[in-house]
């Protein structure tokens, strides 16, 4: 067992974990933060994307011990005082989700993308989301939602 | 007070379902945590076909945290055989299908043992300690060789790999062929696909040991059907089983199933008296969640020189995989009526032979039988146009049912109630700038450009709204095709809609709210929709086959109308007027001629709740149920146009533009309709260009992960330009036709037609799907022209 | 899927890392970014007894100049590499190829050293470092040594690193003034390249003075297209480049797998070499 300390969505947790425990299982099974789902074994689908110390990471391809000392934001930590983040609002308004399984990862990846490219082209949005698979939307409305947010910021 | 309420049906309402999904407050089956929960892990066969000589779980039982472990033989009796509900032809061969293999494994992925442990890590570790001895058996892996005289048998006790033969004919095809100027014969291959819903399957069973009751949570499309069949399969009384489909992360047909893991979890929860969870990994899903398509299609079309189609002959070899699952035999037959599509002709022959192979079982995948039909007819229509030197659109125009000819009964016996192929096609051509693209194509040919342009057309129709129960009976399907809805107007005026459909991304909560709000005249926000739990919504036939709106949504509409009828009696009584003298508008009854005398439906609901003053003899309820059995199918249609650039040096295909105009009848929610099309088109393009389940010579799946099975990501797809025409269905009061599968059905042939169109100047007539760069490059090599 | 159990150590210096691995016995392994290793563990294709996590060894991260050479710490992430101003200025080919590796989230964790030590011939970066005539610096119980990239990639997933050696630095000569292009051919954005071609071209007086061409996925190791390189020398127009590129598959032994046959890969190597060199030479 290895002792870890992690801040997740603003709360600090200390736990003893098996070194092999995947970060995603730590979040889901130990902390009960089931908002972030798992979709594959090979880091292709991106459903499990969370933010670790300001960068998007795939929490299925990371050991909990590797994240020790880090600060994690999941989709569950995006809304502040009941106010949805701009991306959450845009995903809703644009119908950028259907079954919703990829949505947490997609939103976290989009958040990372906009941090790096605040005003992306449609093509940059598509490439920025290349690590996140969606089977429902054909990505059409996801791309639109992300562009909406970037345009909002231009206006602001 | 009588402001007119804006109609809900037709509004682009953002979805009610989104709130919990965008915030992570989800209820996926794998999220469920209960005290004492144990985890299942399943050991699967690494071989495609082998005799099981020995399964020894004793070492697994010694592992820390392991509660139980079983071989197939240990539990065979309690688990029974997985059901197939669709023996589509007389004498359909129905092999035994134990959830855990007992004597033989028949595909790589067939379960051979199960372990139960205190957490998922311990369960995964324990699998490594299960010892199994196999004796390899010869395999049959290809559809086309399954019926060879010397082919190894998947089920030796059945003496054949032939599952069934199905035939249907209308008109005299031989005579039509004799009269034809042109007869084209083609063989198309529908590759094997892995549905790849983003949420892998999961099951949780919580037993109440004392009373013998079980709640089974499953990532399923069919909680109601599942409940019936779990009872039948395990012998546990149906009224002791509650099935819940919590949030379900996509299905596309792959969760329209009664899976072995559901039976295993239920039976072991009963045996152990403990709650159990099983969660599939993606690599397990690729092996063990049913696959789709996998057919060889022989198609022949007979036509006159002027393009008039005289007849069509279709002969299929359909892969069942190693076992029959819930609907396996029926899937190709769902397409039987759709090969003639939108075209008039005088003769049609259809036959299909189902065969077993040592591969993952095949069952429904988005479109289920209809994409195959549409692909074959739309591909051969393009080929016929090329053969006759006609424009692909002109040939279609020459043969399709004109809008004034509806209702029209096709040669396949389907009566299309409505449609307007001219309008949809004209609109699509304008949006696509068809003539300009054709000019560019010619220009590139003239300049011997290494990048060629191809234009593909697909003017599809499909049958939605599965299904009239009587038709299902004639097709030997075991159940009906009705759908149930109930509406309760609560004392405070809020409304509950209970539906038997089981959405998993389709937005029923929003659309059903819109339908109910309009009929009842209540605010959209005041409607809650309950579904996916046999305790809350006891009656239903669930969600698949683009049926939910056409059958389930219409049932909601009809139940709401019954509520208004009942409320009218109460309102008339309260207003001391005749029912016939009441108007109902914007949620209120008013007396004709004296609009100040009015009662809102909410007031009526409270008055009914109080029941102090109801009409004599009236039951104190305005709530209503409706079970709707559709009289016929619905037939959405549309025109999809695709332009691709093909790099003749590398074989790479780039989809440059994609335009579609779909007519899905009356639209309840344009946002949701467009979303359904988007996803469907993406899946159809994926079949055309990217996806294929590939096996090696031993029957090992080589595309076992998402690193090898190429589900397209955002950069791999173009932007789609979608538009609509609206020709209401005449077969239901909402005028709706269904949209869940339209995009998938339409897009695959549009893309492949475009690829082939680009390559026709090189003498290429077909590229097998998926149209990979290498296949295209091979087809362009001198002397290596692709299969004709 | 779920990794098998292992012990875990997290050293804070290179010396400690090397020592920890040596003490850990035969089945001890270094863990870099984990973007290749974690999937392998989850699929239970690797069973290490000890993982030595390099994630907290600061000296393994970062980019610096050493005269005409860029020195990149082995644990520098792809994300860092492709945004690093020194890399962008002096090793544009590396930046360009790194931008095509996997996806943004994987690039945040995956490292240059990790992907070189993994030595997957289908990886993008081995061929790039090979084309750049890079050098790899290893530290082990017997000290420090420099391995030329040409000698580093030994076989499929095998390098010249001894089992107890740690890759600490990647040294690439600055290629200021060279044209470059990484041509990656894959079926979907996330897929491994069927073939990748990394081209570096130095032009002199209108013709190609020197061309270096690295090939991904054309054999059990990344390869240099030596015959084509030689033929490219002196080429002064697109036709000459195209003729030289016809030699690109010479001496390669590409594999057969679900994404391509050997003959198709050979063909792609030729086409992509032509395109990459033309682009790098500014003749495209």
Automatic annotation (TrEMBL), chain A:
Residues 2-78 form the 2Fe-2S ferredoxin-type domain. Signal peptide: none annotated. It comes from the Bacteria. Transmembrane segments: none annotated. Keywords: 2Fe-2S, Iron, Iron-sulfur, Metal-binding, Oxidoreductase. The keyword NAD does not apply. This is (2Fe-2S)-binding protein.
TrEMBL record, chain B:
InterPro entries: Ald_Oxase/Xan_DH_a/b (IPR000674), Ald_Oxase/Xan_DH_a/b_sf (IPR036856), Ald_Oxase/xanthine_DH-like (IPR016208), AldOxase/xan_DH_MoCoBD1 (IPR008274), AldOxase/xan_DH_MoCoBD2 (IPR046867), AldOxase/xan_DH_Mopterin-bd_sf (IPR037165). It comes from the Bacteria. It holds the Pfam family MoCoBD_2. Keywords: Molybdenum, Oxidoreductase. Residues 23-138 form the Aldehyde oxidase/xanthine dehydrogenase a/b hammerhead domain. It comes from Streptomyces lanatus. This is Xanthine dehydrogenase family protein molybdopterin-binding subunit.
Automatic annotation (TrEMBL), chain C:
Signal peptide: none annotated. It comes from the Bacteria. PROSITE patterns: FAD_PCMH. Pfam families: CO_deh_flav_C, FAD_binding_5. Keywords: FAD, Flavoprotein, Oxidoreductase. SMART domains: CO_deh_flav_C (SM01092). Residues 232-263 are annotated as: Disordered. Residues 1-177 form the FAD-binding PCMH-type domain. Transmembrane segments: none annotated. InterPro entries: CO_DH_flav_C, CO_DH_flav_C_dom_sf, Diverse_Substr_Oxidored, FAD-bd_PCMH, FAD-bd_PCMH-like_sf, FAD-bd_PCMH_sub1, FAD-bd_PCMH_sub2, Mopterin_DH_FAD-bd. This is Xanthine dehydrogenase family protein subunit M. It comes from Streptomyces lanatus.
């Amino acid at each position: 067992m290895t002792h870890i300390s992690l801040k997740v969505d603003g709360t600090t947790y200390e736990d003893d974990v098996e070194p092999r425990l995947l970060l995603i299982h730590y979040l889901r099974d130990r902390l009960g933060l089931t908002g972030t789902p798992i979709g594959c074994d090979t880091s292709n689908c991106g459903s499990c994307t969370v933010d670790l110390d300001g960068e998007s990471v795939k929490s299925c391809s990371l050991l909990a011990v590797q994240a020790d000392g880090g600060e994690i934001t999941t989709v569950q930590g995006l809304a502040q005082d009941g106010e949805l983040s701009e991306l959450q609002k845009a995903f809703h308004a644009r119908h950028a989700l259907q079954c919703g399984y990829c949505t947490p990862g997609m939103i976290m990846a989009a958040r990372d993308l906009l941090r790096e490219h605040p005003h992306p082209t449609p093509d940059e949005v598509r490439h920025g989301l290349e690590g996140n698979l969606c089977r429902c939307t054909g990505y059409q409305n996801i791309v639109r939602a992300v562009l909406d947010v970037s345009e909002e910021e231009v206006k602001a | 007070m009588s402001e007119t309420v804006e109609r809900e049906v037709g509004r682009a309402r953002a979805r009610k379902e989104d709130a919990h999904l965008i915030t992570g407050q989800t209820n996926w089956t794998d999220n469920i945590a209960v005290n004492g929960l144990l985890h299942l892990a399943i050991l699967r066969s690494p071989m495609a076909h082998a005799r099981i000589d020995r399964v020894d779980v004793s070492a697994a039982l010694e592992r820390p945290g392991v509660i139980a472990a079983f071989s197939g033989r240990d539990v065979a009796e309690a688990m029974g055989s997985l059901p197939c509900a669709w023996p589509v032809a007389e004498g359909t061969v129905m092999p035994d299908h134990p959830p855990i293999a007992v004597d033989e494994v028949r595909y790589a992925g067939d379960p051979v043992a199960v372990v139960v442990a205190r957490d998922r890590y311990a369960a995964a570790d324990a699998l490594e300690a299960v010892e199994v001895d196999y004796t390899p058996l010869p395999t049959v892996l290809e559809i086309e060789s399954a019926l060879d005289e010397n082919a190894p048998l998947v089920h030796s006790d059945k003496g054949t790999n032939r599952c069934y033969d199905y035939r249907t004919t209308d008109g005299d095809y031989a005579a039509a062929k004799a009269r034809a100027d042109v007869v084209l014969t083609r063989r198309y291959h529908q590759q094997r696909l892995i549905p790849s819903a983003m949420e892998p399957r999961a099951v949780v069973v919580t037993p109440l040991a004392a009373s013998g009751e079980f709640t089974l949570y499953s990532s399923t499309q069919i909680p109601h059907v599942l409940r019936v069949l779990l009872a039948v399969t395990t012998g546990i009384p149906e009224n002791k089983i509650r099935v819940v489909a919590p949030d379900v992360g996509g299905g596309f047909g792959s969760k329209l199933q009664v899976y072995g893991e559901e039976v295993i979890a239920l039976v072991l929860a009963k045996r152990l008296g403990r709650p159990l969870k099983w969660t599939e990994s993606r690599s397990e899903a690729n092996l063990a969640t049913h696959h789709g398509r996998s057919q060889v299609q022989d198609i022949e079309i007979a036509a006159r020189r002027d393009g008039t189609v005289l007849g069509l002959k279709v002969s299929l070899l359909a892969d069942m995989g190693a076992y029959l699952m819930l609907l396996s035999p029926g899937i190709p037959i769902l397409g039987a009526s759709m090969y003639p599509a939108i075209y008039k002709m005088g003769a049609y022959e259809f036959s299909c032979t189902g065969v077993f192979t040592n591969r993952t079982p095949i069952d429904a995948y988005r479109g289920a039988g209809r994409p195959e039909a549409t692909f074959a007819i739309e591909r051969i229509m393009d080929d016929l146009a090329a053969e006759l030197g006609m424009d692909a659109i002109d040939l279609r125009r020459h043969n399709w049912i004109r809008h004034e000819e509806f209702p029209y009964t096709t040669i396949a016996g389907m009566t299309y109630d409505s449609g307007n192929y001219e309008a949809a096609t004209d609109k699509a051509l304008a949006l696509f700038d068809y003539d300009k693209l054709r000019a560019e194509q010619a220009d590139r040919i003239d300049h011997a450009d290494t990048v060629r342009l191809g234009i593909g057309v697909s003017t599809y129709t499909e049958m939605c709204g599965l299904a009239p129960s009587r038709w299902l009976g004639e097709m030997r399907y075991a159940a009906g095709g009705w759908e149930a809805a109930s509406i309760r107007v609560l004392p405070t005026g809020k409304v509950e809609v209970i539906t038997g459909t089981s959405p998993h991304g389709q937005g029923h909560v929003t659309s059903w709210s819109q339908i109910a709000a309009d009929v009842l005249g209540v605010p959209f926000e005041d409607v809650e929709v309950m579904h996916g739990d046999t305790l809350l919504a006891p009656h239903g036939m669930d969600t698949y086959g683009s049926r939910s709106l056409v059958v389930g949504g219409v049932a909601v509409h009809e139940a709401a109308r019954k509520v208004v009828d009942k409320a009218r009696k109460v309102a008339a009584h309260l207003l001391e007027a005749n029912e016939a003298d009441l108007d109902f508008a914007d949620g209120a009854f008013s007396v004709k001629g004296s609009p100040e005398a009015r009662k809102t439906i909410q007031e009526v609901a409270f008055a009914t709740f109080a029941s102090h003053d109801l009409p004599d003899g009236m039951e104190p309820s305005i709530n209503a149920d409706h079970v709707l059995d559709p009289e016929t199918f619905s037939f959405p249609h549309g025109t999809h146009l695709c332009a691709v650039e093909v790099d003749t040096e590398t074989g790479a295909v780039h989809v440059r533009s994609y335009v579609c105009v779909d007519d899905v009848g009356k639209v309840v929610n344009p946002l949701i309709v467009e979303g359904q099309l988007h996803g469907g088109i993406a899946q159809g393009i994926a079949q055309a260009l990217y996806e294929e389940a590939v096996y090696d010579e031993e029957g090992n799946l080589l595309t076992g992960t998402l690193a090898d099975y190429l589900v397209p990501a955002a950069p791999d797809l173009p932007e789609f330009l979608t538009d609509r025409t609206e020709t209401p269905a005449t077969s239901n009061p909402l005028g709706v036709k269904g949209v869940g599968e339209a995009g998938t059905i339409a897009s695959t042939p549009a893309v492949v037609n475009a690829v082939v169109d680009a390559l026709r100047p090189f003498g290429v007539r077909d590229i097998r799907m998926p149209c990979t760069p290498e296949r295209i490059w091979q087809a362009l090599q001198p002397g290596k022209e692709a299969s004709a | 899927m779920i990794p098998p159990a292992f012990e875990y150590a997290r050293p804070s210096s290179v010396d400690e890392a090397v020592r920890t691995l040596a003490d850990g016995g035969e089945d001890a392994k270094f863990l870099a970014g984990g973007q290749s290793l974690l999937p392998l563990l989850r699929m239970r294709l690797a069973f290490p007894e000890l993982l030595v996590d390099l994630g907290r060894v600061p000296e393994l991260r970062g980019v610096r100049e050493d005269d005409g050479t860029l020195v990149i710490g082995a644990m520098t992430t792809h994300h860092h590499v492709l945004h690093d101003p020194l890399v962008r200025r002096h090793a544009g080919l590396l930046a360009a190829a790194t931008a095509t590796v996997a996806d943004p989230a994987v690039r945040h964790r995956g490292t240059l050293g990790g992907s070189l030590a993994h030595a997957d011939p289908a990886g993008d970066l081995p061929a790039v470092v090979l084309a750049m005539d890079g050098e790899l610096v290893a530290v082990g119980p017997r000290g420090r040594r420099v391995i030329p990239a040409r000698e580093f990639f030994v076989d499929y997933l095998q390098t010249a690193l001894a089992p107890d050696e740690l890759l600490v630095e990647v040294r690439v000569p600055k290629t200021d003034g060279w044209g470059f292009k990484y041509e990656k051919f894959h079926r979907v954005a996330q897929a491994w390249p069927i073939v990748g071609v990394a081209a570096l071209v130095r032009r002199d007086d209108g013709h190609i003075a020197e061309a270096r061409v690295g090939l991904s996925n054309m054999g059990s190791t990344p390869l240099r297209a030596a015959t084509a390189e030689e033929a490219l020398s002196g080429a002064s127009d697109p036709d000459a480049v195209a003729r030289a590129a016809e030699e690109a598959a010479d001496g390669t032994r590409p594999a057969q797998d679900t994404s391509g046959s050997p003959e198709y890969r050979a063909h792609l190597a030729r086409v992509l070499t032509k395109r990459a060199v033309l682009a790098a030479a500014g003749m495209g």
